[in-house]
Amino acid sequence: MLLEPMASLTDLALGLVSLYLCVRLPGGTPASKYWRLTFLWAAVAALGGAVHHAVLVGDPQVARVSWAIVSSMVVVVMSFLLAASVIEVLGRSRAIVFWPLRLVGLVAYAIFAATGHASIAAIMWCESITVACVLGLWVWAAAHGHPKARPMLVAIGASIAAAMFRLVPGLSGLVGLEPDSAYHLGQIAGMVLLFTAAAGSSAALLPRAARVSS
């Protein structure tokens, strides 16, 4: 018997969809590896979340540990999303510039998780720099005519909107679901939109002149 059936099943659906998208994602671009890792880790996190909601949530001590692990996987997903975005927009040679900023978020969330304060709110606080970097990159890319920029911004916006179901009290009730299930379903839409954006135009990088002008 599932302890939290709807949350478990929607997380399972999110994991299976993410895994399918990972397999279907075309390669051949400098960022392909990181896009695949983004979808793969999203799938692993969601499938781990399905187990958490189905079985592990019944024991508070075990649930704290399992949730810390699952939520830390979400932070890893953000790392690969940032790496893919940097390579798509600026090119591989400039990726190193963003890793110090990425490290700040990783260390901050590791402290939250280790002290038993792992949560979506903690992820949002710790990942605010990363999210700002990703959004800033794609806004800049849109201004310079990158073919993936607009669909990518729509996908990122959809994922942020899905997170609001967990962050804003009562919002999930508007769709007749509890927060976790509404979040999972919203993220399925976000992942499909991200796949569509990442698998779009084969023009993976901006023209060199545009990159240098930054």
UniProtKB/TrEMBL annotation:
The chain crosses the membrane at residues 6-23, 35-55, 67-89, 96-114, 120-140, 152-168, 188-206. Keywords: Membrane, Transmembrane, Transmembrane helix. It holds the Pfam family DUF6962. The keyword Glycosyltransferase does not apply. Coiled coil: none annotated. This is Uncharacterized protein. It comes from Petropleomorpha daqingensis.
